[in-house]
Design brief:
7 helices, Plasmid replication DNA-binding protein KfrA, DNA-binding, 87% helix, mainly alpha, 2 domains
Amino acid sequence: MARGGITKKSVEQARNALIARGESVSIDAVRIELGNTGSKTTIHRYLKELETDDDKTALSASLSDELIALVNQLSSRLKAEANQTLEAQEERHSEQVNAWQERFEQQSQELLATQTHVEELMQTLQQAEQHQQQLREINHQLEVENERLQSDLSSQKQRLSEKDDRIASLEEKHTQAREALNHYRDSVREQREHEQRRYERDVQGLQSEVAELEQTLTARQHSYSELTQRNTQLETQLAELKRHYDAVYQESRSSEARLSELKQQYDRLEARFAGVTSELQGAHDKQESLQTSLTELTKEKQALKHESVQLNAVIETQKAMIEQWFNTKTPQKPRPS
């Protein structure tokens, strides 16, 4: 029977102290660590329970859930059966001790009455000593076996610890690689979306500029048609007045030549515009070249506009000179009196 103050916690503390000092854990060593208190049966039972708890903790790190459940079930069953057996042994031991105490008291009383039972008591004592010696030998063998099992258990624990460290390192590397891959995917997706938005904005800007250019060209074609009609009229008038206005006629011919040149430039501009429009519709990868072409076209349009303004000014000047000449050469009708 356990004496007062002996608990599983105190046995565990004593065992841990022996392990920390590098000493072998045995029932006698634990009992000495506890101050020679507690029965060996109780200490042995607590040590077995602690070993079972350690084995369960070591196995739970590597076994599957189903196998752990089975091991826990078997461990609980073995523990229950072992507790029942230990309790039965303790109960029998208590009964034997009580019986021995009663017998001892009876023998003591008989010893006081007679000295004839002394030899029988000595023989019983010798038998008890022999039985105790046998128990000590068995206990020593159990301690040797326990030390061997403790050594094997320590080796298994060390290997399991190394395996756990390796698994943790591999899991950490896997996590880092997965985070790096996710970061790379997010970066590529954001860059692709940014490029797509910039491409759409560039295309929309180019389409807007092309539309504005088409409108401008349409207006220039209309202006050119008007200029052609006006130039035809001027040519007719200049043909009639050629003999009198050679200088004016030469200027008109120069203007006509310039107008023809502007027309050719306009045709080339229109052809280039058609080519640029076709390239814009057929291939988006030539956006930079198209942007350059559009810029050049814009500059040429501005130059053409400037030259058209100058030509209009020349034509207006010639028209004013012709009208002035007609006014000076045409006889005025007499006013009615």
